[in-house]
Predict the structure.
Amino acid sequence: MNRNLRSLLAAFTAIGLLATATGCYTPTTKSASATPCMDVLHLFTAANVPALGLDETPSPAGKWTNGITPPNLPGKGLAQHPMLYVGENYDKMFLVNDGKVIWTYSTGTSYEYDDVWMLSNGNILYTRMEYIAEITPDKKVVWRYDCNKAGGANHTEIHTCQPIGLDRVMFVVNGLPPKLMVVNIKTGATEVEHVLPFSQPPNPNGIHGQFRRTRVTSQGTYLVSVFGMGVIVEYDKNFNEIWQYKIKMPWAAIRLKNGNTLISAEGDNLTREVNSKGQTVWELKNRDLPEQYRLASAAQTATRLANGNTILTSRGDNGRGPQLVEVTPDKKVVWVLQDWKTLCGATAVQILDDPGIPEVPGESEH
């Protein structure tokens, strides 16, 4: 049996198990490639891709475009990895391949890109705080869910999303009350809608700090970063709590293939891997990095690569520090991206040549 066939069978099995665990049917993916996102990159440079889509709004250049890249940084700069890249303080997403930006998508002056996914069919799912949307490589919007921007008790925000197969999307709506939802974007049906526990401060604007990254695991559980309460909570499909871990201002938590949980904690300015008992098995504090490579602002998210390396994202304090840093398991720095002439600060990155089908929960460790 060749590697591609094994990968396809594994994907079928994973989706089937997830459908059983969550109680909803999830369609199988058609991709048999170990790196399906690489197979669709040509769609983004095809002749039918407009410079500016109908729903696209030009974004002004960032004030950091004169940032200076330090010499002799580890790695290959923009050529280190093909990647999909967003930062919460800028209004444009970037697709990078072979050391060049090959595609962008702008959404005008607005608020926070916080989560982003390229699917195996080439579509891109992203959150924009005020809404969540899925677009095609030729910049057509195929689905969008808008928040309530009225303010006060009705105000809502979205900071996290995840594809479940090609037809379903999981996301969390910050609000009064906050809710975890799973929507079928083909039928428009809401298949899961559950209020999440949260201790709400008197100020309604406090919803901004409620939740950040949430992930559906390969077992069909929900791993939720409760940013404002300083805790990560895992729920089963019926929303019974099965695990929790307390840490200051957890921005992101992902369940790794080894069963551990990789956490980015803004409050403690660290990235930590813990096992099911809550024991720390790996940790990287900002001060562990060589001084010249330290992050100017705390890592918001972390990506674990198949080779065991970890990539940290940082907003970079508008050009004063790196946007991405990649370290080995023994904390050796192998790549530092500090390119403020090309990119903005980093909040989320998807490495496109890392194995795994993105819409199969658990396969993409980002």
About this structure: The radius of gyration is 19 Å. Residues 299 and 314 are 5 Å apart (CA to CA).
